[in-house]
Amino acid sequence: MGLFDRISRVVRANVNDMVSKAEDPEKILEQAIIDMQEDLVQLRQAVAKAIAQQKRTQQQYNQAQTNANQWQSRAQLALQKGDESLAREALQRKKSHAETAATLKAQYDGQSGQVETLKRSLMQLESKISEAKTKKNMLKARMQSAKAQEQLQNSLGSLNSSGAMGAFERMEEKVLEAEATSQASEELLGADLESQFAQLESGSDVDDELAAMKAQLSGGSKPAGALPQGQAPAADAEVDDELEKLRAELDNL
Predict the structure, then answer these.
(1) Which domain holds residue 106?
(2) One matching Pfam family, short form (predicted)?
């Protein structure tokens, strides 16, 4: 399993665990970054080890190549001295070292490619860790903002604004009702006073007229144009009739 496959598996496992256990996403992301950093440490160690092996192979290759060149010079020297057998032996040694150098050269080239691959993987992992830290900070800020918004909504919900507005409406209705009652009482009181004064005023006129009529009947004073004494019975009858009419009118009031 590759390194990134492992990282992907860890992230998926943490996400699934977060969903199933309702864990804190910030802790999950923090743990994912810790795991990636541990992988980074191991990858750096692998890169360092590969580079060390590459350098060791290079040193061995250089040594083998030096030995091959040295035995080549010895073979030439032995041949110049006329010692063909010694020259042949030197060429055998030169061939052995040359073969070792060729093997080491192939190994070195392979290690060089491996080191380059590990270096690229190391840079990619470092970039991913940096990106993960940035995303973690962004998600942390968003999570804090979401929690603050949720807390604000809960606070606003606990205020029970509808109940408060309902109380204001009820109080307003009571005030309007009290004002209407006061106005109605004032109007009724004014109407009653008007009727009482009207009754007193009308009663005063009738009483004055009735007193004047009584004075005429009693003879206390004779108004101008009074009838002779011999016609009093007829006048009394007329007055009585008029008095009865007035009484009837008063009863109808």
Answers:
(1) 3-159
(2) PspA_IM30
Total number of domains constituting the chain: 1
Residue 230, pLDDT score: 47
How far apart (Å, rounded) are the C-alpha atoms in residues 20 and 143?
19
In the chain, the amino acid numbered 148 is A
Quick check: is 62 in a domain?
A: yes
| Residue 119 counted as domain residue | yes
Contact 216, 223 (CB under 8 A): yes
- Which pTM was predicted? 0.47
Question: Is the Cα dihedral 92, 97, 102, 106 positive or negative?
Answer: positive
Distance of alpha carbon 165 from alpha carbon 87, whole angstroms? 115
Note the pLDDT tens digit of each residue in 152-208: 877 766 655 556 667 777 778 888 888 778 777 666 665 666 666 666 666 556 667
Residue 83 falls inside a structural domain: yes
In a domain, 94, yes or no: yes
Give every CB contact of residue 252 below 8 A, 6+ residues apart in sequence.
none
CA distance 70 to 116: 33
